[in-house]
Structures are given as C-alpha cells and as structure tokens.
C-alpha cells in the first residue's frame, strides 16, 4: 500500500470516529428542562414540537376543568397556593410540576389527518367540550393559553391540546392535576411546622394553650411548667400547669395527649371552602364545641375550631383558612371533646414525702390537734437520710408516718365544686417545709359543702371535693400515730 493510500485510510477512520462521537453527544445530551437524573420536569414529552419555551416568570396559572376552577399562585416564600384559598397549604409535590408547564411544554407529536382521511373533528377530540382550559399570566402582563381535550385512545396520560390562536392540535402528556378539584390538591397537614434542611420536624414546643367553646364554659389556660423541679410544689414533675380558671395540676396523660394532637393535625378531607352561614350551622361551626389556640416555638398563634361529630370524624376550621375540614375524632378528642374536669388532675395536693418538716392537723369541731415534727440525719455521702418523726412529742414509727402521708397526698377528689363555699373549715392541715426546698408554708382546709362532702382549698384556693371518709381518716389516723398504733394508706 502506497504512503498516500495509507494516509487516506487513516483520514477516513478518523472521520468515522469523529462522527460517532458527535452522534453519541447528541443522543446523550440532556433535554431542556431536564432533571439531574435525566428525567424531564413538568409534562413529559419527546420534544418533537416545543409549544412553550420562555424565561418569563409566571404570575398565575388559571385552570378551569369539568369539576372546578382554580388559580395557582406561587408565594414569595416559594410555597404554592390557590388564590381562592389563601393561607391553605397545598400539595407542592404535584403543583410544582403543573407550574413548570408555564415555562416549558413540548408535544409528543402534531395531530394530522391520515392519508386519504379527514382531520378528526373538535367534537371527536374533546376540544369542543374540553377537559380543561388553561391561561398562564406572566409578571410582564403577557399571557399564553391552551385547551385540553380528550385523552388519546389507549393512553389516559396523553391528551389532545390546542394553543390559543392556533388551529394546530398536538398530542401532549399532561399531569392529572389539570383535572382535579381544589379539594384534591390540598395538603392534609394543614399546619406548617418548622423543619430542618432534611425535612425533619424541629422540636415542637406547644405552649400557651387556651380552650373555650361550649365544652369549656370557663376559659381553660394551660402553660408549660416553670417549676417542674421544685419537689414541694404540687406541680413537681408536671410538664404543664393549668393556670385558669384556677391554678391546678393537670391530668398529665390527658394534657400530654392534647399537646401531641396539636403537633399532628392531619385532616381527612376538605369538606367545603368559603362556607355560607347555613353551612357553618350545618357543621356545628357557628357555635363551636371547642376552640383551641396555642403557640409552637416562635410561630404565631394557631386557632382551631371544632364543630359537630359525624361518625368517626369531627368537622373543624382553622383561623386564616376559610374552609371546613374533616378530622378523625381520635386525633382531636382531648381538646375538641373533653371538659375542664377531664383535663385536670383529681389529686388533692401531691407532695414529696421528704420535703415535710412539720405538719399540724387541727379539728376545730373536736378541739383535737396533732403536731408532727420531722428531723433528718445523713447516713453518709450518697447513702440517703435517716428520719425521726414525733407526734405531740411522742416518737412515731416512720413506716406508719409514710402511710399517713400517702393518704394525705394521693387521695383523689370525688367531684369539683363550681360555686365555692364560705370558709368555715372542720379540718385544717398546716405544712412547713425543710429550708432546702425553699417553699412557703401551706394551709389546707376542708369545709362542709353537702352530705359527707368537704371542699378542699390550698391557701384559700381550690375546688376539689372529697368524701368524709377521707377527712375522718386524717383525724383518726393522726391519733393512732400518736398512740403508736398501725395505720394503712387510703386512696379514695
């Protein structure tokens, strides 16, 4: 082979390699509007025909389909919402794909008449009675619109589509949300709690809970407990405190569940939006059974209202969102269906045994008076304390004394007195605490309010009512302790 021929062969081979490389680049190059993984955003097309391709910023996307109409907007915070439902959380995962069609849309193919046949009519393609009409408005005031007809035979994702101002018809793959109702597009998690960059919830500090409504004739306020580690406090160990209508210990389980329910408000469905006065009455939201307001971390106050119960669901509304929602009753029972009595603890005055320094039990009716003094001495570092108890100067068995204190601190109220009673106690208990507990003296009084019923007050406040079985035992057991006789614990 001559030198010249060899050069020609080498040149030919090089050209083939170059052409192959160019072809590979063309075939593997990402399409416009493609995601990093190679899949397209917005509607899925093969880009045979580009229908929309603009760098303009969409202002709104109005969609009218055979079910409803809605105007899709994008807020300054990047969240999507419907103009008709301001403040309502929408399903961003689907709506963002709908929004992308406003800046880029390609068609699978143009619809043309088959050889020797006529073009399908608008009636045949569903363009005379469209599945949807869309109008996109951009921030510069310009618009683009299109009409969506029926799905092509054998494919429920590809639809006939005509751009406004054009006679041409195209086959375009569209998202199903073009054909949904507003109700289908809402996010069932209606409260936007703060999340970290990975999408996980930050710690949710529910506080400043206020309950009103027909279930709560008196406003009930529940706040985080600032005195949780004070062993002499009735609120010792309690995460929350009821501060109104009186300051008292909450039912820890009921209130903890209530706070949890406020962290997870996930509704079942959107019942109606912009409800009429008649609809509000129909769903019991013209006069709600319960209204709860609360804060979470540093967010503004959230207000929820509960109306009628329908089967296993409760109708609710959230301030700022003019829509009636359906929430599973078990997800809101502790604030929507409970009463004040169910949220408060029936315990009279739980205290820590080791905090008592002196207890004086007085019966004005009989003149009996029993004074318990407690002293302690350390067993050594890390070994606890030894306690010495006397009653009116006589030594008392410490185990018996523990049983007596358990009766005093663990007994529950049988009911709660709403009207109160004149202060004329038949039993008085005065308590002093060891200095290490930094607690003031307390006076607990028991005043008759009915047959075998006594109203218990701590420092003049309280509404718990106990039976005479309890008050009689506190007097009789105090005498037994002084006499060295055994006593047992009574928890009513």
Structure described in brief:
The chain is α+β, with helices and mostly antiparallel strands and 492 residues long. The chain contains ten helices and 27 strands.
Structure description:
- By secondary structure, the chain is an alpha+beta fold.
- It has three domains: 49-185, no CATH class; 206-343, no CATH class; 353-483, no CATH class.
- It has ten helices and 27 strands.
- The protein has a nine-stranded antiparallel sheet with strand order 22-21-20-19-24-25-26-27-23.
- Strand 7 (132-138) and strand 8 form a beta hairpin.
- Helix 9 (398-410) packs antiparallel against helix 10 (468-483).
- The protein is elongated.
- It starts with a helix and ends in a 9-residue tail after the last helix.
Low-confidence stretches: 1-11, 13-46
Percent of residues in helices: 10-25%
State the separation between the terminal residues, measured CA to CA: 115 Å
- Residue-averaged pLDDT, rounded? 82
Main sheet characteristics: 9 strands, antiparallel
Shape: elongated
Q: Biggest sheet: strands side by side, in what order?
A: 22-21-20-19-24-25-26-27-23
How many strand segments? 27
Strand content: 25-35%
**Number of H/I helices:** 10
Count of discrete structural domains: 3
Q: Over the alpha carbons, how many angstroms does the gyration radius reach? A: 37 Å
Helix vs. strand class = alpha+beta
